[in-house]
Specification:
The chain is an alpha/beta fold. It has 23 helices and 14 strands. Helices cover 52% and strands 8% of the residues. Keywords: ATP-binding, Chloroplast, Membrane, Nucleotide-binding, Plastid, Transmembrane, Transmembrane helix, Transport.
């Protein structure tokens, strides 16, 4: 039991179950009520301890956990999961708007964020970006305080922290724990896991839980822990930090400690039964080095259970849980009056539209640096200039020139088919930790996040294709028409948005960058090869008959063998995979670009030959491409834009977001 105004520390060696217990207490690892017990996997001690069983119930003021309790609970993760390009002030302000009650005005929410900045001593760095591994920003201690500030914003009754001092120097760690102590002194309950605190940090804790391999070795006041272990025969023989003594004891390392004679006797009996070298119990020599850790842990766990049994406070003999008297009716009524209700329905702090607007603006501010980076701009502009030089002032006077210009159109379709795909591929795998963290505390709806994340990229994605299009279009001397210029740009935008959707869908399905990159490479290669330029597709039997009759009418001198030969040239892809072109956005983009450039008007080539001019539609490269219409291709690309994003949303919905 941990009461308001107290700070409880969970200590133990790695793999002892600290984080598992913290997740259970905070409601992040749900208990099933259909069975009296359920199994939860341990962490590093899984090989030794197998699966730990949880018996009993966890209650908050004598009431079970429910979704409406989440706004009363704050959870600070061990890793500092923050957006690196946002400032400290922006990070806390966006969190305040998303998490504070919707009956507050925006100015009140902003004022609350400023109060937290002052409370945590972040005034000096409030306009500094958070930073990341390769981006200079705030220090590690300041970053940890920002994470704490995101939870303090909602004024939680319970605050859980997972290794808040991990990776910090002793001075910064002391400052962090001092802030935690101040938080508990204003009436909040603070529960934290901590690995190896200094002596000054240890004496700040009110209560202590000591764990070892999932077993409870001690629960009570932190100041009484040394006296308890001394009473059962364990005491340090040299001056040492109490936390170091307790961690060594929980690890089974009793070097430089006095050990009870009963433990030595039990080890001697066990070794003698197995025919091993026995321990001389009556010797004055310290046999701490000969004790195996598992014997020490078993003895400590059994001693604590015996102590509980003697005090007549045992609730479960296997787990050693104290009988906790329920809260008084006055305390329960007071908490209910403060806004907590025992119901399972989730209550959102803000409306869907408010969440969408805030997430849209936050995402735009975060990603504008990535999209508008000089490296990215240089990559697109350099590619455009190289392409413009290679196809400088192209034309289609002859069929060979026409094929070269059509190759340019296919390259444009391919370039804006793979470039946005691999950019969007990293969207959700890189933001998985942030999404999981914010969804775990019900900060926003998944649908509002997905729409803001998807639509927020579109304005940024318009800039680079526009620069690319202007350079290539005029350098390559494509169709000199205003309508053709804008329709070509519209087609590029459709291709860009469709390929983005494919990248988002693959990233959301895989959630692993190596697997996603491999799958995207295969898909992109398949779409490119079936795009309608490198190889042609099978023609149906009816189309073959129609073409043979048409060819015999317009070319009566042509032999049947040459007609059959020309048809066989079109049959390059086996019929059982010819359908792939219909799901390739490269295929539809290429057809649409060709229609814009050469369709909807009479254009001719080979005008300098003796046979006269030929229509572009009659060129051999367009035997399988219709240059009329274009509406079908637009509808197909629009359906891909929507369909790929629906796949990504369903994948995110089905994904487990628990950390």
């Amino acid at each position: 039991m941990c009461e308001p105004g107290e700070m409880l520390a969970l200590m133990g060696p790695s793999g002892s179950g600290k984080s598992t217990l913290l997740n259970l207490l905070s409601g992040r690892m749900q208990m099933t009520t259909s069975k009296p017990a359920f199994s939860v996997p341990t962490t590093a001690c899984a090989a030794n301890a197998g699966r730990a069983q949880l018996l009993g119930t966890i209650t908050y003021n004598d009431m079970p956990f429910c979704k409406s309790l989440k706004p009363r609970i704050g959870f600070v993760m061990q890793d500092d999961v923050l957006y690196p390009h946002l400032t400290v002030k922006e990070t806390l302000m966006y969190a305040a708007i998303l998490r504070l009650p919707k009956n507050l005005s925006k100015q009140e929410m902003v004022n609350r964020a400023l109060e937290v900045i002052h409370e945590l001593g972040l005034e000096r760095c409030q306009n500094t970006i958070i930073g990341g591994p390769f981006l200079r920003g705030v220090s590690g201690g300041e970053r940890k305080r920002v994470c704490m500030g995101q939870e303090i914003l909602i004024d939680p009754s319970l605050l859980f922290l997972d290794e808040p001092t991990s990776g910090l120097d002793s001075s910064t760690a002391l400052r962090i724990v001092h802030i935690m102590k101040k938080i508990s002194q204003v009436g909040r309950t603070v529960v934290t896991t901590i690995h190896q605190p200094s002596s000054r940090i240890y004496h700040m804790f009110d209560k202590l839980i000591l764990l070892s391999e999932g077993q409870l070795l001690y629960y009570g006041k932190a100041s009484h822990a040394m006296n308890y272990f001394s009473s059962i025969g364990f005491s340090p023989q040299i001056a040492m930090n109490p936390a170091d003594f307790l961690l060594d004891l929980a690890s089974g390392n009793v070097v430089d400690m006095s050990t009870p004679i009963q433990l030595l006797g039990q080890c001697a009996d066990y070794n003698g039964a197995r025919g091993l070298h026995s321990i001389d119990v009556g010797s004055k020599k310290n046999h701490s080095n000969s004790l195996q850790p598992k014997y020490v842990n078993q003895y400590l766990s059994r001693a604590y259970k015996d102590m509980l049994s003697k005090n007549d406070a045992l609730q479960d003999e296997d787990m050693g849980v104290r009988t906790i008297s329920p809260y008084s009716d006055t305390a329960r009524t007071s908490w209910k009056a403060s806004g907590w209700k025992n119901k399972s329905d989730r209550e959102w702090s803000s409306t869907w539209w408010c969440q969408f607007c805030v997430l849209y603006m936050r995402g735009f501010r975060e990603r504008r640096h990535e999209y508008m980076s000089w490296l990215r701009i240089f990559q697109v502009l350099a590619s455009a200039f190289i392409i413009g030089c290679l196809w400088w002032q192209s034309n289609f006077r002859t069929e060979r020139h026409l094929i070269d210009q059509v190759g340019l159109l296919f390259f444009i379709a391919t370039f804006w088919g793979f470039f946005p795909l691999f950019t969007a591929l990293f969207t959700f795998p890189l933001e998985r930790a942030i999404l999981a963290k914010e969804r775990a505390c019900d900060m926003y709806r998944l649908s509002s996040y997905f729409m803001a994340r998807t639509l927020g990229d579109i304005p940024l994605d318009f800039c680079l294709p526009l620069f690319f299009h202007i350079i290539v279009y005029f350098m390559a001397h494509l169709r000199p028409s205003i309508s053709a210029f804008f329709l070509t740009f519209f087609t590029i935008l459709l291709s860009t948005t469709a390929s983005q959707g494919m990248g988002i869908a693959i990233g959301a399905l895989m959630m692993d960058l190596k697997k996603a990159t491999t799958l995207a490479s295969i898909v992109l290669l398949t779409f490119m090869l079936s795009g309608g330029f490198f190889v042609q597709v099978y023609l149906s039997r009816s189309v073959q008959v129609y073409l043979s009759r048409f060819e015999s009418l317009v070319r009566p001198t042509a032999s049947s063998s040459s007609s059959s030969s020309s048809l066989r040239e079109l049959q390059s892809i086996p019929s059982f995979i010819a359908w792939i072109r219909y799901i390739s956005y490269n295929y539809h983009t290429f057809r649409l670009l060709a229609t814009v450039q050469y369709g909807h008007g009479s254009q001719y080539f080979n005008c300098d030959t003796s046979t006269g001019c030929q229509k572009v539609e009659e060129a051999s490269i367009f035997h399988n491409i219709s240059l009329e219409g274009g509406g079908t291709e637009v509808l197909v690309l629009l359906s891909m834009i929507i369909g790929y994003r629906l796949i990504a949303y369903v994948a995110l919905r089905r994904m487990s977001l628990a950390i």
